[in-house]
Each structure stands twice: as C-alpha cells, then as structure tokens.
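Lecture 7 notes: from sequence to structure.
We start with the chain below.
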Amino acid sequence: MAMRTFRPGRVPVRMYSRSSLAWRGALAVVVGLIAVVWPGITLGAFVILFAVYALLAAGVDTVRAFSSKRVGPIFGYLLLAIISVAAAIAALAWPGITVLVATVWIAVWAAVTGFTDLFLAFGPAERAGERLMWVLTGLVSLIFAFVLAVRPIAGAITLATVFGFFAIFYGVMAITRAAQRPDEPAA
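Predicted structure tokens for the same chain:
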C-alpha cells in the first residue's frame, strides 16, 4: 500500500485502494494483450496519442501566449503552437512515417546512451565491476540502436510487443498486490 505523509506528525494518507489497483492491473493486462496480439494497432494508437498530445500542447501554448504580460513570449508560444499543430497533422496524415521517425529517434537515443556508457566505463574512479557494468550496458544499448537503425519497422513492431509484455507483467503484479491484503477495505 502506498503511503504518503504530507506533514510530519500527520496520519498517512493511502494513495490508492485495493480495488483501484486491481482495476488498473486488469486494464494493463488487456492493453498488454492487445499490444502483443496486434502490435500494428498499438503503433497506430501511439501515433494517435502523439497527435492528441501535440494538439493539447498547442492549446496550452496558445493560452500561455495570450496570458503573458510581454510581447516576446507571445510570438514564441504561438510559434510553438503552430509547430505542435503541424506535427499533429503530419502524424495523422502519415502515420507510417511517424512510427519510422519515432523508431529512428529511439535508435539515436540508444546509440548516444551506449557511447556515453562506454565512455563512463573508462573513468579514472571506476572499479572493475563497475567498468564491466558500464561496458555491458553500453554494448547492449549500441546493439539495440544498430538493430533499430537497420530494421526500423521490425524494431517498431518489436517495441510495441515489448511494451505489451511489460504491460502484462505490470498488470499481473498490480493484481497480485491488490489481492495480497484482503483484510483492507476495498473502497
């Protein structure tokens, strides 16, 4: 049970109930199964979620533009809003390219992470075990980046499938956690 104390000496407040945790776990299992069985649909859903996010960001930036007291931020926020709307339209118009670009972006991130880890492995204060861990994580990141860069569409489908397995695992763990304490009220 997650507990959080807001002020010293106060009674902790429960952050979730058993039933909400069980429902969240069940939803995660369902989403995970959909992602594993239909990874293409999952990628399409990610594109739609990105477009919705970009449109929401455009709305927020527009509100920020007109709530500023200075002229400079108005143009900057309006420019960000226009870019966000353009990104949302492009994502919805060309979902395949959007998935491809996202996969290549993840590959670049993994490559930068891998090279950084390899660089950190040879720092002067690292012990042998730490060096080995940095080298291994760096190599795994570089291999991951290489696979995504060489086969981005297969990599995108694999990412959706891995997301599905993670969601299933998370859901099962949440349901298990909710079932562990049956004596607590199910609010």
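Points to note: The chain has a mean pLDDT of 84. The beta strands are 3-4, 13-14.
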